[in-house]
Amino acid sequence: MDALADDVWLLLPPLLIVVGLVGIVVPVLPGTLLVLAGMLVFALSTGSPVGWTLFAVSLVLAAAGKGAQYLVPGRRMKERGVRTSTLVIAVLLGVVGFFVIPVVGAVVGFVLGIWLVELGRGRDHRQAWVRTKHAVVAVVQSVGIELLAALAVAALYVVGVLVT
User: Fold this and answer.
1) How far apart are CA 46 and CA 52, in angstroms?
2) Which of 11, 23, 66, 106 makes an SS bond possible with 31, Cβ 3.0 to 4.6 Å?
């Protein structure tokens, strides 16, 4: 039984990290939290100062990534005239789209939601489309920032495995 427990402690951190990375790209799972959980399990399993130091650095990287994930795209959208309320409505339509059109419905609903809100604000079709593109770019940028932070944490895991 001890061998099985050792195997679980060995396999759980990279499994959590990989599932977390997928969860960032496919926003169904709490990606960053799963990556951090993988690092926590690694720190617990090694019990070494190196493991705990890497976990602490992981927390700092993840927090910095979360902060940048909202600040950078949010600032860009404000500069280009896209309101936060537009994104809230677009996310709600994305959720509806997820259930109406399997697989691609969330993306279709989200983009359509932005366009409809911007069009409803009295802008012409072209201006609404320009703002829709800015909002979509900001969302992709937000996911990219979170993914980079999580990949940095994953790299710390690799360093920890090599060092310990």
Assistant:
1) 9
2) 23
